[in-house]
TrEMBL record:
Name of the protein in question: Pyruvate, phosphate dikinase
Active site: 480, 859
Residues in PEP-utilising enzyme mobile domain copies: 447-528
Boundaries of every PEP-utilising enzyme C-terminal domain copy: 544-897
Protein EC: 2.7.9.1
Positions contributing to substrate binding: 586, 645, 773, 794-797
Binding site for Mg(2+): 773, 797
Family under the similarity heading: Belongs to the PEP-utilizing enzyme family.
Keywords assigned by UniProt, alphabetized: ATP-binding, Kinase, Magnesium, Metal-binding, Nucleotide-binding, Pyruvate, Transferase
Origin species: Desulfobacter postgatei 2ac9
């Protein structure tokens, strides 16, 4: 197998289409090289090699070393430098790069090849001793951390890790000698520091920092492979549902140096503003620095140009001002890359002694608002067509656009704590915590937390995920954590320099004010403002551009999108979001909640009735309430289909619990309270979810179904008389046998005919159908379809019964299933296509065989999950139904599925 693909000005083997094999970074480096951009030459070791490396239990495939040496020789002949040569040494970086970008989650090692024999040569060649020792100390820091400690899985004795140890040594040196910046450290001090680093490494890790370039190279390559299974990378994959078997590529690339003095620099830029989507070149850079300094957020970076100036960096010179010619070259590259990729790019560059080099480009992460604005702009500019535009907005992040912002009125009078950079959108409030672990813990006990950190660190990934918002004292808009937050649409403010964090006391000082762990802050991530206390939130206002976008998306959609609405209020919200009907109206919901005292009382009376007569009497009292609720909903949904489900939950759920309520029922039924206890007890079941519920209630007590169906038809009749057009769909839940459907259908037909007579009308259009939520029903869908005019897949119960997982109890073990990669995601969130999906497609096929025009939809939570929506489209369903706030997500996902 060929493992290595070269790239560079002279020879490039891959291109942007080969992300699976070369990883995103490698594929795009190859593409940029093909575009004749100044890419330092190098080669990519494929993701396939990474997988083979793991198959061989962490050993390189036999042919790899030879291939590496050959590729290194090619770089040497292109650059005229030689790896390990004492006079003219070549240095390289070893960079990770998976198929889809995982910013900062894996490892990269720079300056590989520096050792006691090559150092003097490089000093002589560059005439810059400071630079060489700065590069050396970086190599030692990265290598000892990534290769010697993490890849070897050495657990630090002092709990701190070698990286922190070395960082502390460097900080102490800076403090002792009064150096403000890394660049102030003298050459002599750097030299001594490197020696002390090596000694510390020997002490703590029990091994010497390798002085052999080839050993460094091979060690780095193996460690980058291993970083695929590092803690942060694994966490990130779980969150993003990235498969474990993709593996990472390794890019070995000629080093270029941004730390060679005042004519050298490094930076990160976006071809458009990733926060707003504005068509402005946006970026940050640092003079005399290496790439990691910008992305790690350790120094406040300079603005790229006037468009990029903000409150934190406005005093610092921009690249446009400092190096106008190079800025212009970069600006031209920006235009070229956008025209080529037809999408916003995130780029990394380095300037070595006045020469520009391109080190990375990839499709840039962006906020939902930015994604929307850029897609619409590019459509209007004629860069992309409608279909492409529709696919540019990730349905998952749509949520954020519809999510709350800080109420501008509340903000006017709020007490400001600090100001930082608006790295992630929207508003959020929460209690402040200072470590990722605390954020995870507090969030577990249902607290809203804001994770406050000195700087953004990829190790904090789980804490960032758990927190409602992230706030940091240092770092810029292009730091890794800012990228991650933006990708998730998480409210995030970075670089709030006024914050002085004391981790030991878990306190935060701002001037003379002191805040403690647990204090509440509110963040406006769109403006970068931090406030004291909990401010009022507001739904994001109507977004005109969003509506225009969705109107275009709707043109391409094949499936209808309905909503699951239990109340008239839900139905109104869903209509605003573009719902085309109700896919699930749960009748029992009118009995929950505070306003339903009377109805609930009557329901209880019915449930605790003993004789048929008692029950009939109670049902008659209940009837007007049910009819009214259904009528209001049908009226709101005039002209649109409304699927009304007959009573579903086990009756015991409604049995009164308090003494007071029990006495009330006893009085109403003229029975003793002891009798109420007795009757309640009889309703107890050991497995209520697979007990006496759904259609089974209607079989035992046909009068209950009768009352509901009659309420539906009479509501319709009254609406029809008032000139409306109700479209009810009567749905029977929890069926497993076609005879159940036959049984209930008789009641339905009888009520229908009776209502026609009573109201003296000619027609009462309706559909009769069932939920498919028991595997047996799916498998005999051909028989079910003899009675059912529609199926609605209740994938919550269908998942529960297919897996045998109790929905209400999965909390105790689901994480173990995910952590051990037994399941790639929670099947209650994302439909299990393998088995549950197979039941759905089977039922679709068998149902259509009996009744070709049968209407098919889904009403489980999955109806609002983009991946599951795509599945529904492929399965040929007519509609999906989801909660009101998910309607836009489902509309977009359905449009993308059809493109
Ligand atoms: P990540 O995937 O975490 O962004 P990268 O592989 O891009 O990691 O490397 C981290 C930083 O190191 C980048 O900012 C990049 O600019 C710098 N870097 C990587 N390779 C080189 C190189 N050959 N020369 C100079 N800088 C480099
Ligand atoms: Mg990078
Ligand atoms: Mg159900």
């Amino acid at each position: 197998t060929k493992y290595i693909y070269e790239f560079g000005p002279d020879k490039t083997e891959g291109d942007a289409s080969q992300k699976n094999l070369l990883g995103g970074k490698g594929a795009n480096l190859a593409e940029m090289a093909k575009l004749k951009l100044p890419v330092p030459p190098g080669f990519t070791i494929s993701t396939e090699c990474c997988n083979h490396y793991f198959d061989l239990n962490g050993r390189f495939p036999d042919t790899l070393e030879e291939e590496i040496l050959k590729a290194m020789a090619n770089i040497e002949s292109h650059t005229g430098m030689i790896f390990g040569d004492p006079k003219n040494p070549l240095l390289v970086s070893c960079r990770s790069g998976a198929r889809s970008s995982m910013p900062g989650m894996m490892e990269t090692i720079l300056n590989v090849g520096l050792c006691t024999t090559t150092i003097p040569g490089l000093i002589k060649k560059t005439n810059n001793e400071w630079f060489v020792y700065d590069a050396y100390r970086r190599l030692i820091m990265m290598y000892s951390d990534v290769v010697m400690e993490k890849a070897e899985q050495i657990h630090p004795k002092d709990g701190m890790g070698i990286r922190l140890n070395l960082e502390m040594m460097m900080n102490n040196l800076k403090n002792d000698k009064g150096y403000d910046n890394d660049t102030d450290i003298s050459t002599e001090d750097l030299k001594a520091l490197c020696e002390r680093f090596k000694k510390k490494i020997r002490e703590n890790l029990g091994a010497d920092f390798p002085d052999d370039p080839k050993e460094q190279l091979m060690g780095s390559i193996g460690a980058v492979f291993k970083s695929w299974n590092g803690k942060r990378a694994v966490s990130y994959r779980r969150i993003e549902h990235i498969p474990d078997n993709w593996g990472t590529a390794v890019n070995v690339q000629t080093m270029v140096f941004g730390n060679m003095g005042d004519t050298s620099a490094t930076g990160v830029a976006f071809t458009r503003d990733p926060a707003t989507g504005d068509n402005k070149f946006y970026g940050e850079w640092l003079v005399n620095a290496q790439g990691e300094d910008v992305v790690a957020g350790t120094r406040t970076p300079n603005p790229l140009n006037t468009d990029t100036k903000n409150s934190q960096n406005k005093h610092l010179p921009s690249l446009e001002e400092s190096m106008p010619q190079l800025y212009k070259q970069l600006f031209d590259i920006r235009n070229l890359l956008e025209a080529h990729y037809k999408d916003m790019q995130d780029i990394e560059f380095t300037i070595q002694e006045g020469r520009l080099y391109m080190l990375q480009c990839r499709v840039g992460k962006r906020t939902a608002t930015a994604a929307l604005n850029m897609a619409m702009d590019m459509l209007e500019e004629g860069t992309i067509d409608e279909r492409t535009m529709v696919c540019r907005l990730d349905p998952k992040i749509l949520d954020d656009m519809l999510h709350p912002i800080v109420d501008p009125d509340a903000e006017k009078t709020a007490v400001k704590v600090a100001e930082g950079l608006p790295a992630g959108p929207g508003g959020a409030w929460g209690q402040i915590v200072f470590t990722a672990e605390d954020a995870v813990q507090w969030a577990k006990s249902d607290k809203n937390v804001i994770l406050v950190r000195e700087e953004t660190n990829p190790e904090d990934i789980e804490g960032m995920r758990a927190a409602a918002a992230v706030l940091t004292a240092r770092g810029g808009m292009t730091s890794h954590a800012a990228l991650v937050a933006r990708g998730w649409g998480k409210c995030c403010i970075v670089g709030a320099g006024a914050l002085k964090i004391n981790l030991a006391t878990k306190e935060l000082r701002v001037g003379t004010r002191v805040f403690k762990e647990g204090d509440i802050f509110t963040l406006n991530g769109t403006k970068g403002m931090v406030y004291q206390g909990q401010l009022k939130m507001k739904d994001a206002s109507e977004n005109v551009r969003f509506k225009a976008f969705m109107a275009i998306a709707d043109k391409y959609r094949a499936m209808q999108v309905r909503t699951n609405a239990d109340t008239p209020a839900d139905a109104m919200t869903a209509l605003d979001f573009g719902a085309q009907g109700i896919g699930l109206f749960r009748t029992e919901h009118m009995f929950y909640g505070a306003d339903s005292d009377k109805a609930l009382f009557l329901l209880r009376k019915m449930i605790l009735s003993k004789t048929h007569e008692e029950r009939e009497a109670a049902l008659e009292e209940l009837f007007p309430f049910v009819k009214e609720e259904i009528k209001t909903t049908l009226q709101i949904m005039d002209n649109l289909p409304v699927t009304i489900r007959l009573l579903d939950p086990p009756l015991h759920e409604f049995v009164p619990q308090s003494r007071e309520n029990q006495q009330e029922i006893a009085d109403a039924l003229h029975i003793d309270i002891e009798e109420v206890f007795k009757r309640s007890e009889q309703l107890l079941e050991s497995n209520p979810m697979i007990g006496h519920r759904g259609v089974r209630l209607g079989i035992t007590y046909p009068e209950i179904s009768h009352m509901q169906v009659k309420a539906i038809f009479e509501a319709c009749a009254e609406l029809i008389k008032a000139g409306k057009k109700p479209m009810p769909e009567i749905m029977v839940p929890v069926t497993c046998n076609e005879k159940e459907l036959a049984f209930v259908r008789d009641i339905v037909t009888q009520c229908h005919d009776q209502t026609l007579k009573t109201y003296e009308i000619d027609a009462l259009p309706y559909l009769y159908g069932t939920m498919i939520e028991i595997p047996r029903a799916a498998l005999i869908a051909d028989k079910m379809a003899e009675y059912a005019q529609f199926f609605s897949f209740g994938t919550n119960d269908l998942t529960q019964m297919t897996f045998g997982f109790s929905r209400d109890d999965i909390g105790s073990f689901m994480n173990d299933y995910i952590d051990n990669a037994i399941l790639s995601s929670d099947p209650f969130e994302t439909l299990d296509q393998e088995a549950v999906g197979c039941l759905v497609t089977t039922a679709v096929e068998r149902g259509r065989k009996t009744r070709p025009e049968i209407k098919l939809g889904i009403c489980g939570e999955h109806g609002g999950d983009p991946e599951s929506v795509v599945f529904c489209h492929k399965a040929g369903l007519n509609y999906v139904s989801c909660s009101p706030y998910r309607v836009p997500i489902a509309r977009l996902a359905a449009a993308q599925a059809a493109i």
